[in-house]
Amino acid sequence: MQSASDRHEYPAHWEADVVLRDGGTARIRPITVDDAERLVSFYEQVSDESKYYRFFAPYPRLSAKDVHRFTHHDFVDRVGLAATVGGEFIATVRYDRIGADGMPASAPADEAEVAFLVQDAHQGRGVASALLEHIGAVARERDIRRFAAEVLPANNKMIKVFTDAGYTQKRSFEDGVVRLEFDLEPTDRSLAVQYAREQRAEARSVQRLLVPGSVAVIGVGRTPGGVGRSVLGNIKDAGFTGRLYAVNRAFPEDLKEFDSVPAQRSVREIEEQVDLAVVAVPAALVPEVVAECGEHGVQGLVVLSAGYAESGPDGRERQRELVRQARAYGMRIIGPNAFGIINTSADVRLNASLAPEMPRPGRIGLFAQSGAIGIALLSRLHRRGGGVTGVTGVSTFVSSGNRADVSGNDVLQYWYDDPDTDVALMYLESIGNPRKFTRLARRTAAAKPLVVVQGARHGGAAPQGHAVRATRLPHATVSALLRQAGVIRVDTITELVDAGLLLARQPLPAGPRVAILGNSESLGLLTYDACLSEGLRPLPPLDLTTAASARDFHQALSRALADETCDAVVVTAIPAIGDASTGDAELAEALRTAAERVPGKPVLVVHVELGGLAEALSAAASTAPRPDSKAPRSVVRAHPIRPLDFPAETPPEPSDTSENAPRLITAYPAAERAVRALGEAVKYAQWRREAAEPGKVPEYEDIDEKGAARLIGGLLARGQGLTLGTDETCDLLGMYGIQVHRALHAPSPDTAADAARTLGYPVALKATAPHLRHRADLGGVRLDLADEEQLRRAYAELTELFGRPEELRPVVQSMAPRGVDTVVRAVIDPAAGAVLSFGLAGAASQLLGDMAHRLIPVTDRDATSIVRSIRTAPLLFGWRGSAPVDTPALEELLQRVSRLVDDHPEVVAVTLEPVVVATHGLSVLGASVRLAPPPARDDLGPRTLPTY
Description:
The chain is α/β, with parallel strands linked by helices. 34% of the residues lie in helices and 22% in strands. The chain has an eight-stranded mixed sheet, sandwiched between helices. Helix 8 packs parallel to helix 9 (313-328) and helix 22 (749-759) crosses helix 23. The longest helix has 23 residues, at 188-210. The chain is globular.
């Protein structure tokens, strides 16, 4: 379909899939000479009013000259883009470069006229807004900096498209026409508008999958045990509130019903709208099914079928074609190789998954890229005993399989403003767009907790079915960056559930102070030690003795909660023996009523072999099913993986929001698990408080940004990438106020003596060979050389120990004030973006991996926290009587490095080592800088779905 243009090859990189306002998708691509018939057909479906608004006069049809003009572009001065669904145009946009006189022009003219036309049936879907983002990006690529548009005053919809875009604008009115001019340089407001539209569109696309009015299961076998028939049964047993259809082309023509569900041989035969299709046919038959669904207007697909990217190169190509085909029809996909989706809302009750039972309704959202892990998560949240108490249930569940289309990012967009989800739990094996995930995670975490466990973190590669960009960052660095974004990072699915249950129904602690009380001194001491290990501040445990009654627990918990020196309470309980022992239900009620009186502090219970107490704590609230409830109940069936030992619960009443929900106390079988969950809640609460007052990226008057840009441009003109020499490094860093102590090469004792005379004594003599650089512990450094005699003696010692001067590469450097040696690094990772790292210099820190990391740009708050977040930070603050060093100077250095990399993405790596931080000031003794063309920033371009 695409062909060469008049002047430039077809720009395939302008092609993109986008999500529209209503959650459907469209394909945006350049218009070519092959599109003449499509253009004419498109224009015939546009109303006379829309044509009038476009051409300012009645224009019933396009002439041959018009068609030629609108399909022949040079992709530089004349560009046209089309939005397509099912291969047909639904909207077009074009720009024509103009000069100062408003006439057609070529570069260096940097202004263009832009005009849109959207089919009436697709107006209001956000098509024009998406096209404006993409044509603007194309124009910037072609050195066009400004758009002009002339619009009739009555064309309010198009005026709103321009004015709402967030660009800097000028508006005038002349000869009955509104003229709008706006710069194309992205602004904070335009990016905010783009992100808000992205959130609404992607959230809506997931909502269409999770809240369908009708579902068709395609591939329902007539014999029991098949995937399609199992899913059909699961949907029916869950009490799905919408319309359900069974589809199989092998059904007899006269079959009208299957398992009490309307049956059809094809989706095309269903007379009503189908919102969601669950596909469970062999991979070879999926393309035909997708085509039928697309032509019938199905809005989304859950593809359970396997045989795609997880099976090898051929399967990967099938997966690419599946995504292309579905998006061409405006559909989004969960899968392939998916486990399915669940929505426990009383208005939906959808279990379109392989889970044979509907989870209990609750306020926890679950996302898993693995079906097996999805089963484990549902199982742990579903159980009442033998571990974590099932104190709450699931709002929605998505198992994405190969995540070829809908990913964790999309589900985060949905959960962000989903009123039924208070806590988000995610199991991720890969992160397709780390920059976007970090941005979405930060926004989500500011509103509700987000707990993540990452699998395959030590394997070095994503699972075979996942097509994602690789990151060069180690897992510890990625984990630190996620924590910076407010993500609660845990290591196991047990910890994932532990933290999720606590956060779902308990308030966030105001601080790290923990009261401990219970009827076991030993268990109290174990809890105390666990708190210290997690960095909490426990109060001395209160032992109520084994004779404690429920009243004793109630009074002790009430006193602890009323104590202003306590932020959270951990109650420990062991079985009591005897006729007068406290019953589980009585104790649970005592704890619940005490906790209700002080609702602002979290309460946790550590129980030992008290399954009854765990169940009683869960039941001691008004969410237990009422005998008169009329809502459908989950059908509990035997399952070899997940034993069910409790009755299903009805969903909470609509008024049971997170604000007025009853206090459900979470119980844990081990002190370590309870305290670890509490520790994560404390750290998250602290992040929330700090995020409420974000820091600022400081401005420095002595920074020469333009001079640095000229220097970088001149250096890159030499080649694609290079490591700067010493002088160039010092010059570039100096333009950002970073002064480096120069080191003079000393290939012989005489040149060393000359260098020392130039610098002035005392000096240091260092070996800079790769195996000795920054390794003072190996003896390759001599310090405080006061005169030439000491210098020559030191030179002789080094050559005698380590070899000839050409092997040692010795340098002479003036001495810096004594202090703590540190290292500062910045690197641009192709997947995660620009990252700043800090730690102490030396083998010990490297061996322990004691480095802290922050995403660039770094704020003043980030700089303060990164210095204090390494384990060896006490060495900077006067450890064991040593003098504290100048940490404000260190924080300023970190921010200057951050500014350099943020202002100039061509600076792909910076290393300052060592940076000696003294009591007053600091000294940068070594520095290296690497330049390269910057990697593409997909987070700054127009909205687009990832391609695989």
